[in-house]
Amino acid sequence: MGRLVVIEGLDGAGKRTLAEGLTKALHEQGASVATLAFPRYGRSVHADLIREALHHGHGDLVDSVYGMALLYALDRRAAADDIAADLKWHDVVLLDRYVASNAAYGAARLRQDADGEFVKWVREVEIARFGLPVPDAQILLRVAPEIAAERAEHRARSEADRAKDAFESDDDLQSRCAAVYDQLAAASWLSAWHVVDGTGRFGATELARLIVHPG
């Protein structure tokens, strides 16, 4: 079985760039890699409903923290068989966002900490009830919320299909989410975490070594 590795971080942290660099470094070390990003826009009805709600569709759906979180969870549940198959055939399955993203953003929206009821609920639904595989390692790409916001704004201006959504436009939410992410990493929530400075060099080669040869 391969190792399930997750990259987490704020919108605009640089997760896609790190995923590309880490995939290249893993290949250079002889590891086969499968990648997947959540939400699976264009591939999942749940993900498409999320995008529409974040851009003011479906009435007040976006206002429901639990309703939105359940859509994120259902998107991952629908991908569970694909993840399991990839784990059988690849050394590493690298995910851009996973269960911790749901926990961090929902807790931040409710102004709870990582030890609050919402994070417990996410774990119960996604891991215990839906049976999603537990990550072997999680990477927190940490950047200051204001830097992440600047990057998200630049992306919205330069990419026609990347307009900022309701969560990305809420700077206070991003700050609270960053704090919850730090708490999840400190508590080794679900698995061990590696914290990476998103404002400098990502150190993809060293991260790849840690993933292939943990401990």
What report would you give on this structure?
The protein has 215 residues and is α/β, with parallel strands linked by helices. 52% of the residues lie in helices and 13% in strands. It has 9 helices and 5 strands. The protein has helices at residues 15-28, 45-54, 65-78, 80-89, 99-109, 117-129, 145-158, 171-186, 204-212, and strands at residues 3-8, 33-37, 92-96, 137-142, 192-197. Strands 2-3-1-4-5 form a 5-stranded parallel sheet, with helices on both faces. Helix 3 (65-78) runs antiparallel to helix 5, helix 5 (99-109) runs antiparallel to helix 6 (117-129) and helix 5 packs across helix 8 (171-186). The longest helix has 16 residues, at 171-186. The chain is globular. The model has no long low-confidence stretch (mean pLDDT 91).
